[in-house]
Amino acid sequence: MADIKTQVQGIDPNLRAQNLQDMSSRTTNIYESISVMEMRARELNTAIKHELHGKLEEFAVTTDTIEEIQENKEQIEISKFYEKLPNPAVIATNEFIEGRLKSNYKDEEFDF
Question: What is the model's pLDDT at position 111?
């Protein structure tokens, strides 16, 4: 996966109404289109979460007492950046509309 910063460049973080006819024309029906976007949104959500936790682990300090809370400005800036990112569903919908997502079927044989 590419860096999330470059991936979301130029994406409007706000939701907008979409033409369902355009979305369903890329797959066999609208439900399949939504399923493709949902799977991609889950992938993005997991990737963003791992990336954020990886960056915040650098600042982790283990202490024995709960009362000691230390603020780190870099940690706060990283957290603010990830809070401002578009929702993974918005990113996935944008990727689907731009034609960067494809759906494939596995060839499966069922024995009954």
Answer: 47
